[in-house]
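It would be a great kindness if you could assist me with a short task in structural biology. The matter concerns a single protein, recorded as an amino acid sequence and a row of backbone structure tokens. The record follows directly beneath this note:
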Amino acid sequence: MTEDRPQSELFGSLSHLLLSSGCSVRFQARGKSMEPAIRDGEILHVKPVVVGELCKGDIVLFGDGLKFRAHRLVVVDRGRDVFITRGDAGTESDGTVCAAQLLGTVVAKEERTGTRTQTVQLCGKRARMRALVSSLRRSGSRALRSLPILRKARLLRQSILKKKDISGTPNWLPLLLTLLSAPAAVFGQVAIDSTTSIGQRVSGATPTITLAHTTVGTNLLLVVGVSINITNNTGATVTGVTYNTTALTLAGAHNDAGNTRRVEMWSLIAPALGVNNVIVTLSLPGGTGTLGVVVGAITFTGVDQTSPLRSFVSADGAAGTPASINVPSGS
């Protein structure tokens, strides 16, 4: 997103002056390099940049010669003073910039819907997750469009539209057969909807851990992973997981060779929409020991609603530098 206005130098000087003095600024975006997150003409809200708080996925306003861009960070290396950005609509990264070139962080935009104007947050974990999901969807769409079968279908359709049968009606049967012969997976696209996690230390015979998790979208699959340090009670297990009071199904579990760590995976097809609680109930035989537990939940969209998961596979290994584990794919 480039500011090509004649007053670009004045814009940069004024923005730098205001932001460096602790003030926030608003300006109108020009260009399509950040679509769909930021559209041409939308008003952006920018606050002073705090280099130590920048994360990959944040949108920053920076100077590029006499032009100014508001692009997303794809590389953050504060130790080497290296920052690399890229527009959401682009496939190539911008040049490397240093902290001195960063003017501010884009935190929100004003989005107009009909006669209403609402402020949409562009900074923070949820905003970065939305950007990641959007990026995955765009990548998937580009990959699908490049598949030979879809290219052939488009060429066939164009050919059919040019040639009509003797009744003057387009002959759609060959195209229909072509599309029907394509595997269903060609037209599906699995994407990440949302992720949440929490870590706690638990004790007692049947402790529980509660995690608030948000689900949106269609054709959903919720997967919950539970990692337990069982050093102080090697018989500890998960006895059940619910989401909005609906029970999940155990996909599989694995204890390491030393019987000090345990991992369990649970799943639920078509979880309830909205913000609901994931509740994990554990069993500590004898009620002894204090265990460290981490719970993570991730929702996928565009998932087959009949048999979304293959068989559970697992492996473990000793820590090393670097550490690596080979896990075979599920059948």
